[in-house]
């Protein structure tokens, strides 16, 4: 598949945009480097690059595009919003309509606030938790990505209950010292951290279902234990549902009973951050929680958070249209069935060629880990063959199948994918595994 125009554009982009990309995950650094593909147009489950090559898209823009590209209902809503002016700097009725939709689907949210990105949403939940508890420290889990604010770009220190170290240049030790990182699915480590830092811990932050080192389920009892331990310590529980909200069913993962027993909805967080899908492909984030906690936020309370673009009519209109479209009966079951076929096809193809592959699938999302062991935490996700993944990624791209360029990212099936797309993908994977096995 020739991509001369993508290559030329990348060379030009490098002159003007740092690293040639506006988000580092878009570069091909994690899959051996080279020019990323420059896309020009998307329609349904497919997009086309600047050279006219067509791809089946499993990147889904890292999650938001659950309906597929240019869904007519969402497109119409965006056009209507644009015709009426995209930004007023005043409240609008649309924001109320959208807030009600989000709240109805996620009852732990008594009050919400819309922002512009998942990063902002998470960052603010931390501020609110600190304001509410009058404590400073946060416990989070290794490998869970919570955006790029200082507080969450922190890696584990020398042991699970030790203070963190900056995961990026430019983050002061004094900030990293406010964060403790423990392994996901490890209640003992959490307990040890809580015992050590007790009264200092404002909140425990978790992706209730992980989407950032592959798709990883909480072990049965993990979230229950986490909530009980945090609350008995007087700490709040923050769910980062930026990836998971509206991913598996119409609502956040915290209200989904179809995945695990005891059901996820048996326990509820104090604060939740959301984003991605709820913006229908336009920039958005949101956070919310119990009324008495959310009342910490300005103008009611002392915790300040604001945004010129927050709640803008275009993003809110796209979000409303997206949620309306997601209410189509059977949509999530269709995603589930398509993704089950994809997972089975990939697993059979890998087996046929003797490739060790662990597939974690949760409804319409899956992850492929080149290893022969389960992946239930970040250390296990790291202990997988990155070179094999990089080769697989390139072989798939050459055949018009677009995956995220990182062994840690998920594949997202959209409502626009068809059985034919899945069959084409499995056939391509078979050819890729045959090459890898050589
Ligand atoms: N939280 C989670 C779980 C995410 O996966 C992401 C982004 O991938 C974020 C937060 C940050 O969201 P955004 O990229 O919209 O700032």
Automatic annotation (TrEMBL):
Cofactor (UniProt): pyridoxal 5'-phosphate
Catalytic activity: (S)-4-amino-5-oxopentanoate = 5-aminolevulinate
BP GO terms, sorted: protoporphyrinogen IX biosynthetic process
Catalytic EC class: isomerase
Annotated positions of the N6-(pyridoxal phosphate)lysine modification: 276
EC assignment: 5.4.3.8
Family membership noted in the UniProt record: Belongs to the class-III pyridoxal-phosphate-dependent aminotransferase family. HemL subfamily.
Official protein name in the record: Glutamate-1-semialdehyde 2,1-aminomutase
Organism: Paenibacillus xerothermodurans
Record gene name: hemL
